[in-house]
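Progress note, sequence design subtask.
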């Protein structure tokens, strides 16, 4: 069958894609930027890629008319403060576009919306569900609460809190109950639901077997990691203060922190487990899900991470809009050095950042990241998804990977920290040398003053980094 997969570069989409191909389906992958779409060669023969933006009706005209099914995995929660309007508009445009196709079945992944008083985030999910249900096709809505898996936003937030804070003074919403589900079970339910007539025109809550408070989830995480943690709940922490608490302690963005805090006050417990019986699925426990996530992390086998989404940073537009490094009106710091061994040099470049650091004066990089975080930027909180691999679109500390070609020996990064201008950092192997170029396009007088202020630091930071990369 031919299936349209939206959100193909997202956290869920990247994991669902190979499973659907393995089931024998042909996929049409909707992406906003083809430069970010990376799959193994073994999958390419079963995939067609189309580029569109659901806020632009004209771009949806390239959706093939002969699709049999579709997955709607598009969310804008952390990308904009006006995400409710954007999500609704996207859903309407998408519904109108696929109404013109031969689609039989649409699957929408939503959030559990069982309470009357919903957060803005959950209310938006419900509104999208209602719009998508108006189409001339069968629809199945799968409503999930907290999704736990390597690289998921929920998992990374819990991980940051537990591993960084031995004692936590927390807001009262930590007593709210939820029903977490593992990412592998989410993918299993998504893939088994498509074209299953028993799921047509129904909505199902999906969750694991455990009903836990957020406090219990944190403490259980600590026990698995052999970390003794104490949590004290106070009633006086406001939503704004709670959002700042999450923002500064965890790797989440502030916009996502606000949306999460508002949602965490709402209980998200499944009404029933009917979908498990229909599909023959037996979800893992919370403890088993955590163990599986850490197994993936330890083997450096994280398929996707929420940190690589555009919403985790400040890049506005497609990668192709920034991949040509400007020269007019720009400042540049260009250095080169003969390397000892090409393969060693390249391996060092492709391992840069994250836990590996920046090869010289890491404390200065960390200080810059801390300052950026105080200013409302991304800081160094994102790290990197894979310790040895980089592909276009990946987040790398406060950079975004624009171009990555290990065979060619070229890596191009774009700065997502708060700056009075734009910045690029390029590493390029050429004629036995590593050429390292920092380019800055200033914005007004403030940008020019900034460049001259950091220039003395560049003199020894970039020199030291280049030396250690080439030795």
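Output:
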């Amino acid at each position: 069958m031919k299936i349209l997969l939206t959100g193909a570069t997202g956290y869920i989409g990247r994991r669902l894609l190979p499973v659907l191909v393995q089931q024998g389906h042909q996929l049409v992958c909707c992406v906003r930027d083809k430069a970010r779409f990376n799959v193994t060669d073994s999958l390419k023969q079963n995939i067609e890629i189309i580029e569109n933006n659901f806020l632009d009706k004209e771009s949806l005209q390239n959706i093939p008319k002969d699709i049999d099914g579709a997955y709607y995995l598009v969310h804008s929660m952390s990308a904009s403060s006006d995400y409710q309007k954007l999500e609704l508009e996207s859903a309407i445009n998408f519904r109108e576009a696929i109404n013109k196709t031969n689609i039989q079945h649409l699957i929408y992944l939503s959030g559990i919306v069982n309470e009357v008083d919903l957060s803005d985030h959950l209310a938006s999910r419900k509104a999208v569900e209602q719009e998508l249900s108006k189409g001339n096709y069968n629809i199945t809505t799968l409503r999930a609460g907290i999704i736990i898996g390597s690289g998921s936003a929920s998992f990374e937030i819990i991980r940051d809190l537990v591993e960084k804070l031995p004692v936590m003074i927390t807001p009262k919403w930590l007593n709210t109950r939820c029903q977490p589900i593992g990412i592998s079970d989410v993918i299993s339910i998504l893939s088994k639901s498509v074209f299953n007539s028993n799921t047509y025109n129904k909505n199902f809550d999906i969750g694991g077997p455990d009903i836990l408070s957020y406090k219990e989830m944190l403490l259980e995480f600590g026990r698995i990691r052999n970390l003794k943690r104490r949590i004290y709940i106070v009633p006086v922490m406001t939503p704004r203060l709670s959002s700042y608490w999450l923002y500064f302690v965890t790797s989440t963005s502030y916009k996502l922190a606000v949306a999460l805090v508002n949602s965490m006050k709402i209980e998200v417990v499944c009404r029933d487990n009917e979908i498990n019986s229909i599909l023959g699925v037996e979800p893992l426990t919370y403890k088993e899900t955590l163990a599986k996530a850490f197994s993936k992390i330890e083997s450096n086998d994280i398929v996707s991470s929420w940190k690589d989404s555009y919403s985790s940073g400040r890049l506005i537009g497609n990668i192709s809009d920034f991949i040509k490094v400007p020269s007019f009106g720009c400042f540049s710091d260009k250095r080169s050095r003969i390397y000892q061994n090409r393969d060693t040099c390249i391996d060092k470049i492709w391992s840069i950042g994250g836990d590996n650091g920046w090869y010289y004066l890491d404390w200065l990089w960390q200080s810059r990241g801390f300052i950026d975080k105080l200013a409302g930027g991304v800081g160094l909180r994102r790290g990197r998804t894979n310790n040895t691999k980089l592909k276009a679109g990946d987040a790398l500390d406060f950079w975004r990977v624009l171009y990555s070609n290990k065979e060619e020996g070229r890596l191009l990064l774009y700065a997502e920290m708060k700056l009075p201008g734009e910045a690029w950092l390029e590493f390029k192997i050429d004629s036995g040398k590593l050429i390292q170029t920092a380019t800055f396009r200033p914005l007004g007088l403030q940008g020019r003053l900034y460049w001259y202020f950091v220039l003395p630091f560049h003199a020894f930071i970039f020199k030291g980094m280049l030396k250690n990369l080439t030795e």
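DSSP finds 14 helices and 19 strands in the chain. Work on this subtask will continue into the next period as scheduled.
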